[in-house]
Amino acid sequence: MSNNNVVQTVLGEELGPLSDNERLKGESDFLRGTIEQDLQDPITGGFTADNFQLIRFHGMYQQDDRDIRGERTKQKLEPLHNVMLRARMPGGIITPEQWLAIDDFAGENTMYGSIRLTTRQTFQFHGVLKPHIKSMHQMLNKIGIDSIATAGDVNRNVLCTANPMQSELHQDAYEWAKKISEHLLPKTRAYAEIWLDGEKVEETDKEPILGSNYLPRKFKTTVVIPPHNDVDVHANDLNFVAIAENGKLVGFNVLVGGGLAMTHGDTSTYPRRADEFGFIALDDTLAIAEAVVSTQRDWGNRSNRKNAKTKYTLDRVGIDVFKQEVERRADVSFQPVRPYHFTDRGDRIGWSEGIDGLYHLSLFIENGRLLDYPGKPLKTGLAEIAKVHQGDFRMTANQNLIVARVSADQKALIDRLAREHGLINDEVSEQRKDSMACVSLPTCPLAMAEAERFLPNFVTQIEELLQKHQLPNSDTIILRVTGCPNGCARAMLAEVGLVGKAPGRYNLHLGGNREGTRVPKMYRENITVDEILSELDTLIARWSTERYTNEGFGDFMIRANVVQEVIVSKRDFHA
Ligand code: SRM
Ligand code: SF4
Helix crossing, 319-330 with 285-299: angle to 10°? Predict the structure, then answer.
């Protein structure tokens, strides 16, 4: 499929000529391109032509700092090209030794000196210049970490509920997240050859699962342990909902077709919840994962990348048709969905005790940015903890970090280190813990408005509104801000979601729920921050006085008819 004059036809329907991304994947020699030559080229700090896209399959994005872009153009300099690296960490578990190595690299070899925890349970380095790229991969390899398939048209980092309290169930679920990740990884040796000086081999195995053109678009998978929906299943193409009997994992409910991105002004794009396909036994997990991926591989739209994700394939071919194809390919019949429910998505910040008698400290890391701030040396604090910690660390899909499996005799020491370095702060409000922003400016090339740098002050203003309307600290609103409609902070599953439109201007969405099972609807378009605050002032006042007992802000927005409920996204979201 490397010829872009070829028209793609699926189940008799013509979708159009293949996009240029199909050409570049097909011609890439299994993701090698000419990345190695570009790496040697000292004339530019960047990657050229197709390599700009191909490095994504190796877990890197080319970026430049947008704050200084204009100044460099004035000085007739090329943008200060660098890469952002995203590691592959199924289930987000990292050891103290690994942590110390990444801490060291971030401090010594990146432009920003930070480690950024992401909304998909891993970390990113921002600002790695060309001379450091290869040594970065070699450092990671040495400590048992890679960045394969954390970006590009492949199955991304597989998430797993970060709940160390139920240790046995968590361990089983986590093992499945790892197995699924391994099973769906690209089989090409390109990563080892380019970054790890691996031996050159002719590819004999032609990517049996992903195919030589890889997937039509990115693909996201989770393993979730109800009642916590911390991974936000409805943002993901494929979800395995753990079903346990007497604390033991017995199988999974499978949910397919979630995704949150849209494009401003294009009503063929929309955020969408995943659909329930049914229950499967544990032994069928990999076959089902593979069948969902291969169905999407063959039926996903390779002509229009904006309509290429699984959510659009389901809506195009029909949910039942897609499901039957998965059953046929896997030779497994879905059983009726087993009962489950979600209650919440947040992390339990602070200490908790697991059923195995070990302790876990969940740290709230604002925007996931670990850096030494004046008076708050967060990055140093974690390194100090890593030097003494005998358990592990767990990154959460809420950009937080758990110091997990702490023995009783280490608890006081770790608590002291965390407090001394500002990692525990009893003043942080519950509202702040329920707020999240994507990276956005200055590193994200797609950002239309601020998000990470905007959120902290904005939360202070929301805290003031909650106080003004006499709401206690425990009554919060799930608030998420993304700098553009791609939705990286999952604003499209928030009670209040702000979506960047232009500098200082956002679309205001309302009506998601606390469990993350409803997409919020647009209430006001392209408004300023003052206008947002004024709207929220009125709505929070009403919530405070008119709500039923324990009624969440998003639920109240629907009941009070402030916005219509989005039930079927394709029909309701833009209506
Ligand atoms: Fe994302 C693109 C950051 C989670 C939907 N995302 C980007 C890029 C790489 C911009 C780019 O393409 O050049 C951003 C890099 C910014 C930077 O400087 O770091 C970026 N996305 C992030 C992270 C770091 C946000 C964060 O604050 O933590 C998250 C990294 C996750 C990870 O570790 O893998 C991140 N991105 C998400 C999520 C949330 C999720 O998966 O739970 C979504 C919405 C869910 C979904 O996929 O529907 C998301 N990111 C996108 C999209 C839209 C995809 C689409 O369906 O159209 C893009 C743009 C694209 O792919 O074309 C994008
Ligand atoms: Fe960038 Fe948009 Fe994702 Fe924010 S939502 S990180 S602005 S792509």
Answer: 130
